[in-house]
Amino acid sequence: MGILTGVVMAITAGSVAAWGNFQDVRTAESIPSIFSGYVDVTATPRYAFEDPVSKEAENVLLSFIVADAGNGCTPSWGAAYSLDEAGSALDVDRRVARLQQLGGTVSISFGGLINKELATTCTDAGKLEAAYGAVVDRYNVSSIDLDIEGEALSDVASLDRRAAAVAALQQDRRGSGKDLTVWLTLPADPNGLTTAGSDAVRRMIAAGTDLAGVNIMTMDYGGSRLTDRSMYGNAVSAAEAAHRQLTGLYRDAGSELGSETVWRKIGLTPMIGQNDIAGEIFTLKDAEELSAYASAKGVGRLSMWSLNRDRTCSPNYPDVTQVSDGCSGVEQGTATFATILGAGVTGSPPTAPAAVAQPTRAPAVTDDPSTSPYPVWNESTAYTSGERIVWHSNVYEAKWWTRADTPDNPVLQGAATPWRIIGPVLPGDRPTPQLTAPDGTAPQWEPAKVYRKGDRVLFEGRVFEAKWWTQTDSPEAALQGSPESPWSKLRDEELLKLMTTPAPTPAPSP
Length: 510
Prior knowledge:
Blueprint: H1 2-29, E1 34-35, E2 37-40, E3 59-67, E4 75-77, E5 81-82, H2 83-89, H3 92-101, E6 105-111, H4 118-121, H5 125-139, E7 143-147, H6 151-154, H7 156-175, E8 181-189, E9 192-193, H8 195-206, E10 211-218, H9 231-252, H10 259-264, E11 266-270, E12 273-274, E13 281-282, H11 284-297, E14 301-302, H12 337-342, E15 382-383, E16 388-391, E17 394-398, E18 402-403, E19 419-424, E20 456-459, E21 462-466, H13 476-479, E22 487-489, H14 492-500
Helix pairs in contact: 5-7, 7-8, 8-9, 9-11
């Protein structure tokens, strides 16, 4: 009888375990595995995330939103641009809308190593939640990334403020039928999360934040790097340790998650090519191995720092051991890290709200000059490089002199079209004021006067610069965009700089 009872108990226990494994697998399969590359929004040269070079580059993490230098509860891009300034100077709003228009997804990353994350400077709970919410609403996103490192990771008060604000924001959005996916990005080494990193996760869970997962930065290991292993090997060590840590953190919080489900809550982010630590180089081979590992484990997210850097450095960049914002520092040939890493995931992030999706061409649209941010395209008007127009509810910029070339020509592509699409006309857009130079900005043009290359004149409220020796040639032709004119019209940004730069003080007479 005892033997029989033992057999029954063993079978029962085995059945429970099998059912638990089955449920774990089913839960994990319901969670997408995604690839989303970071984009440094304020870095130069500007990365055209709105024109993805591959399918893997269609899902981006725009970084970094931090506290404004003058107001700790006001979000900014890199403490360099207010949200409005980024909209006008960097076209961020329009470019985000363009990528969403194409079916891509945008997530916003808050924090980073440099500058102040909002929760470290904004101590008012309501204002902090409002700051996060303002960014989410402005860019119409359903996913955010909280990159907490450096001093922010040891600021316990800010950890609690951030956790409470984000949990409240999630609850508010769900109350209005919207979702907000939240990833927590933290530094790691081959031993997994740091003690401070584990504490940050614990506080997030305790505050009621529904974490999509914890993304570990598998980069810049320094003295902790396992020297007998590749960068891939160090990343695997960090991932395995983080899996154990996250399992324990959720168990301590009263949630027993299965192994497969925990892997879906793990994100891995290498720094491609040259890392900030000398001798640490994440190669294409490392990327291939990490991609295969992520696929086998069912890792929930793969990212990389950054899409800006995903190309071979120019021969004019002499020292590839110096980290560049614009290239990886390794020879890539035709390969990209995004394509390789993106192969290791099986799904896509949640799509942007349906209201964002629009057709890229809508010939039936009647453009309204009263709400168009730029003049409506006219077939008989000549346009010069950099000039912008509106056509069929989209903003285009001229790549060179053009006249009568339809901006949304469905046949012409690449170098064959003189127009580059920036993005759709946005709700709330109004006509951009036409810039007029006041008298005295430059000498008035005189027909009889001889002008040499570099001389500037004022003509009909604009400043023109001579391209070569000229006399009697009116700037009128340049105003109409003629490439044969000896005059070139200063662009708006050049004219604005000229108008706002104080004139040099004349030297005193002897």
